[in-house]
Amino acid sequence: xxxxxxxxxxxxxxxxxxxxxxxxxxxxxxxxxxxxxxxxxxxxxxxxxxxxxxxxxxxxxxxxxxxxxxxxxxxxxxxxxxxxxxxxxxxxxxxxxxxxxxxxxxxxxxxxxxxxxxxxxxxxxxxxxxxxxxxxxxxxxxxxxxxxxxxxxxxxxxxxxxxxxxxxxxxxxxxxxxxxxxxxxxxxxxxxxxxxxxxxxxxxxxxxxxxxxxxxxxxxxxxxxxxxxxxxxxxxxxxxxxxxxxxxxxxxxxxxxxxxxxxxxxxxxxxxx
Length: 273
Known about the structure:
By secondary structure, this protein is mainly beta.
């Protein structure tokens, strides 16, 4: 069942969109100096460990420069299915194939997933940290909606809310004179996104089957011979292998049969009788 390769870069694109929200934040020092806060992807533990390393501990014998502050880092922390946003499985999204407009391509409804993100702000003093988080928090009330081009091949765009879950502050300074003081603000987010399945190219329809129940009546199109019966009409192309841009005709077959009687048992199942 599984194994047919497809890849839409949905999660990768979500990570890029999330990071783009915070890549243009600045702080202003009392002297008027404006500093752009750098942003990188990675776990907060890695940044904190790197900050606490001494400059003389380079493994290759060279001097190691400590990381400068302020700095921001973010990472994808969780992927959780959200059953409350589940869509009907049979829903299809259709679009003409760009390589062949006579054919359609379709995709079934995506699966709803919550993507958890963590944004860490590392600063040397409280004022720097407050400047940064106050440039973020007003936009989340508690969500901020972005439009993502989820499936470019299907021209599928979706408004995706990003919800700010919590904001916490931690002081990494333990009192050692050789340890740098690091204030950390952790912001937790949830992105309400969808994960999409494969895009399938549909075949040209070469056979149509229509079944109609003929009711009784007194109009001109009814008769006692057909009332209460079922007509099954099948239309196929001639020749059967004809393509959409070929010259072809149609074959039509009409079949009549009696309407079956349906009985229902206690468990609501039915069997033709």
